[in-house]
Amino acid sequence: MITLKNQSTGLVKQCPTGYSWTTFLFGIFVPLIRGDIKWAAILFLISLFTALCTAGFGALFVGPIFAYFYNKIFIKSMIEKGYSYSDEATKSYLIQNSIVCAEPTPSLNLSNAPQKTNLSDN
């Protein structure tokens, strides 16, 4: 579980990490309860399409596969909404799991360095 904080409102949210067992067990209801309407609709449409193509059997596989990715998707959507890490443990988790990129290191300012020119003999 990681903690994200909205920089503009100060609201703090706990976000689960890893495999989403709640999504595995309760399916579409988890994104609905979290207020993630977009992913609830996507999960519903994928399940519906898979069920129609496989006479209902394929929809059994959508939930376990989606549960593997959903917590990471939810964290990314929270970051897009203005949330950021609230502590160093959360920051290191986000970087290690490639959810956010590490902060770039300051580069050298080479604007005052002499410019190389390519002069050809004519």
Strand content: 5-15%
Number of helices: 5
The strand count comes to 3
Order of helices and strands: EEHHHHEH
- Rg for CA atoms: 22 Å
Helical percentage: 40-55%
| Secondary-structure class | mainly alpha
What global shape is seen? elongated
Verbal overview:
The protein has helices at 21-26, 29-33, 37-53, 59-80, 88-96, and strands spanning 2-6, 12-15, 83-85. It is 48% helix and 10% strand. The longest helix has 22 residues, at 59-80. It has five helices and three strands. The termini are far apart. It has 122 residues and is mainly alpha-helical. A three-stranded antiparallel beta sheet has the order 2-1-3. It has one domain.
What's the layout of helices and strands?
Elements: E1 2-6, E2 12-15, H1 21-26, H2 29-33, H3 37-53, H4 59-80, E3 83-85, H5 88-96
Antiparallel strand pairs: 1-2, 1-3
In short:
The chain crosses the membrane at residues 12-33, 39-70. The protein is mostly helical and 122 residues long.
Keywords summarizing the entry:
mainly alpha; 3 strands; 122 residues; 3-stranded antiparallel β-sheet; 5 helices; 48% helix
